[in-house]
UniProtKB/TrEMBL annotation:
This is Protease PrsW. It comes from Exiguobacterium sp. (strain ATCC BAA-1283 / AT1b). It is found in: Cell membrane. It comes from the Bacteria. The keyword Transmembrane helix applies. It is an enzyme of class 3 (hydrolase). Signal peptide: none annotated. GO terms for molecular function: peptidase activity. Coiled coil: none annotated. Belongs to the protease PrsW family. GO terms for cellular component: plasma membrane. Involved in the degradation of specific anti-sigma factors. Its main location: membrane.
Length: 218
């Protein structure tokens, strides 16, 4: 059980450390990063309850609705809402990369607790490996896209448009990931290839956010 617990928690912490260290300006206060991580974890139970209610009521059960609405939109909206009201509106959120960092922290808090609960039930190291590669890293990558938009929103005259794009873009890429898994539940290769593409996009957005910081705060 200890091995399963470590397998559940380690990927999220490793990914959070990576994105924390990619910030090229001054290090963000760890207290705020941890707050975002915990805030994401808190979302797991209400979201699981809502999703359970959808299943019991037979609502949004088709592959498209399940992937893009019952899962992606629900989870990404609540994460966006939590990020906006716990960190975005505060002065500590002051540069382009902050959106990525705090969105990743919140999303990985959600993914880590969700992963722990899942592995607690299934108790399999093989499943733990696949969940680290797919759902956990996926949540981090969805968050990079959302966070990039949030960072742009903070410094743009079109703030509302960027805030909308933060939810919309994360929902679309998250929903596509889940749609792939629903259509090909026994085939991991399509989902892995999609994650590779998302990693490429995420690294480009990380570079773009840091470049915007260098231009803005040099």
């Amino acid at each position: 059980m200890i091995a399963i617990a470590l397998s559940a928690v380690a990927p999220g912490l490793a990914l959070l450390s990576y994105f924390y260290l990619r910030h090229e300006l001054e290090a963000e206060p760890l207290g705020y990063v941890i707050r975002s991580f915990v805030a994401g974890a808190v979302l797991v139970f209400p979201i699981m309850f809502i999703q359970y209610a959808f299943v019991e009521e037979g609502v949004l059960t088709g592959p498209f609705w399940q992937a893009y609405v019952a899962t992606a939109l629900l989870e990404e909206f609540f994460k966006w809402f939590m990020i906006y009201y716990t960190i975005y509106i505060h002065k500590v959120f002051d540069d382009y990369y902050d959106g990525i960092l705090y969105a990743v922290a919140c999303s990985l808090g959600f993914a880590t607790l969700e992963n722990f609960l899942y592995l607690w039930v299934y108790d399999s190291l093989e499943i733990a490996i696949w969940r680290a590669i797919l759902p956990v890293s996926g949540h981090a990558l969805f968050a990079v896209v959302m966070g990039y938009c949030l960072g742009r929103a903070k410094h743009s005259a079109r703030e509302r448009l960027w805030l909308f794009m933060a939810v919309f873009s994360a929902t679309v890429i998250h929903g596509t990931f889940d749609f792939i898994l629903i259509l090909e539940p026994n085939q991991k290769l399509p989902a892995v290839l999609y994650i590779v593409i998302l990693w490429t996009v995420a690294l480009l957005l990380v570079r773009a956010a840091n470049l915007s910081n260098r231009r803005q705060f040099k």
